[in-house]
User: Fold this.
Amino acid sequence: MIYRAQTFLRDEVGNYIPSSMDIDYPKKLMFCNNLTKNNSLNLSSQSALWYPPLEKTLKCLSSLYRCIESTTFSGLAQEAISLCTDNIILASKIISRTSGASDGQLFLIKHLLILREQIAPFDAEYTIEVKELDFSHMRGHMQRIFAGELSLFALSQDNAFFVLASEGRPHVLESTVNSKKELEKKLKIGCEAFIMTVTKLTVEPMLRFITKVTAFEFSEGDGKKLSTSALGSEKRVAEVICSVNSSLETSFIDMMNSLKIYIRGTETQALLLKPIFSNIVEAHVQFFNILLQVYPREVLKGYGMLEVDELNKLFQGMLL
Assistant:
């Protein structure tokens, strides 16, 4: 049974090659959501629409949980979760190339969240000890031989063969691998990547402006003012504000809709959105503070510049 389980996990999870239909996101989720709204798909049967390696991993672990000893199950579970996580990451990279970075990241977050949620009831350690042979110290001995410091023909303890025999034996390195902690780590990295992708998508013109102003202030040692440079011109400032406001009304709203398609839980949505909101507000604050040294507040407001209170009100409405 153990051998068959390991073979199944290797072939159907670790080495699984996704078909075009498997990674047809977000269309696959949109189709699923439409069926759910029309009562054509029960919530209990939605697991059939999970990414196949995830579904197969969970079915395999569920079948084995009551059939084998806990220590043996822990070892298999550790291997299964590791293989499943790696394959989900591979699929997310393919989706990022075909549908866009945010879709790939949301696919990753969605499926790693499901995996974390579904393995929670299992009473397992998910930990194995790994032993590796370390030959890194051999490099120093070989360098000494090639440099002539150790002779192959010396009759003393400096004989190269003697040194390699006594000191060149590989070191055994022991480490502990916890697949559940690795899953949490990769989920965190995926969430942070999505947060940064959306932040840049929305306020990149402001971030680019702030970076250029910082470089300008360092490079202009002769006292040249921002207001007299092309960077700080009214036209340039108005373009940045208009571009960011347009992103908030279009691409940011599209991202919100995509997030709700991939992640159904409102609490999880809020956990992802709050740091994005915070980053967007921080970019506006920095941009505003720089320009207040050059332009009156009324002028910036005339260009459509949103202040913190207005942004917070806007984001609160999005969370409802």
Residues 110 and 139 are 45 Å apart (CA to CA).
